[in-house]
Amino acid sequence: MFDDDLIYGSDLERGPVDAPLTTRAKIRLPWYRSLPLSCVEKLEVTLDDRLVPSAGIALRTNGHRHPASELSRLDQVEWFVLDAIDLELTGESELEPGPHRLAVAVRLRIPYGDEDFGDIEFVQTVRCSKELELAERNA
Amino acid sequence: MSAIRLGVTLYSFNAEYYSYKYSLEDCMERVGSLGPGQGVEIVGPQMIRGFPDLSAEFEHRFRQLVERHDLRPTVYGGYCDAQRATGRWPDHREQAEYLQRQVRAAARLGFPIIRLQPNEVVLTDLVPFAEHHDVKIGLEIHAPRRIEDIGPLIERVERVDSPYLGFVPDCGTFCHSCAQVCVDKFLELGVPESLVEVILALWQEQTPPAEMQAEVSRLGGDEYAHLMASETGIYFGHSEPRAMLDIMPRILHVHGKFYDIADNGMDSAVRFPEVLDVLAEGGFDGYISCEYEGHHWYPARDVLGQIKTLQRLIISHSSEQEPDPTV
Q1: pLDDT value at position A119?
Q2: What is the C-alpha separation between B259 and B297, in angstroms, rounded?
Q3: In terms of CA atoms, which chain A residue is nearest residue B121?
Q4: In chain B, which among 4-43 make CB contacts under 8 A with chain A?
Q5: What per-residue string of b and e applies to B86-98 under the rule 16 or more CB within 10 Å gives b?
Q6: What is the pTM of this model?
């Protein structure tokens, strides 16, 4: 559902001044309703055809930064369905200005199973790839 | 004359809402445009930031919109979300709290019914809590589940025997075919017409999912063919409308799920004439909330127009029927 909307907008942004190796894109939750971050089972990112290591991926919601490794514990943290949240990528060098191809794959656990009335496995895997523009350093 | 009442779920406008084309206000205005007294149903975690809680701001915003557009809150779409925590089920207290917050929200927003799913806490502790807040719990019967398959659950609800615990059948469980909008999508994605025909025939025979997937593999189907086999099995159910007669006194509300409404009001998947006949026979006098779900395959195709046409069918059908006093 909503595959083409997974990556929002057409820009990459630089991270804050004290984190020059960080770049941010915006992503939408590919489901019809809000879910907790614990339902993001898998988040795979490639930037210019290079896989971003999991340790370099974080999500930022409501001003809080959540490393990918911690998402599974966050059943109290909401990803509101209308929010485009920050996908924060930290690499080994600064990204050059200009076009970059970002590909994101998300696997969501849709939490509708029940211990007594049907323990189902209901997942949604959504992929999106877009060319995004990173502005010059002082823009 | 059947007293069935008309409403809409805002989920019908899912594609427009998600893409920021319609705000909550736009959705409510569209429902109001159908005429005074329309029922309105919302999905809690779609519309309400901070679900399962409810902010004072949303409460006032919603109530003002209800008043402005002369609507009637019918159902708050709630969720058990029992798999929300990774690798563990919530304990009883935790689940009770998650559900109580939703019941309180439903009450504050003026909803007489909360839609939930079968769950141990729902069937026990939540019933007196809901009664205290004067909100009835409607257990949704949704495709691929059939009424015929949930005998033990029906018995359980009968044993509780409370006016605050009942059912919400979703018409997607009463299908004569797979929806044309679904078929069109998979043809567009390149599934060969011959394989589409095979999948549809297997659906008609109520082939179990594993067997359907095996046949698709045998015929060399790609990932889209497998997805079509999976989705036809999930979305289009095989329940018989007359099975509703067995639970009619416990039916609190009906979801009028639809996919492609033609000019004459007929849907390409759902058996509306039979459903409406049975509801009239059973003397159902609650709301039927029209619910478009074609957006799963294509963005909305004149949703409001389809709702209007379907509601005309419901009215014209209802006016021809008399409830059967022996039911």
Answers
A1: 83
A2: 10
A3: A116
A4: 11, 14, 17-20, 43
A5: beebbeeeebbeb
A6: 0.94
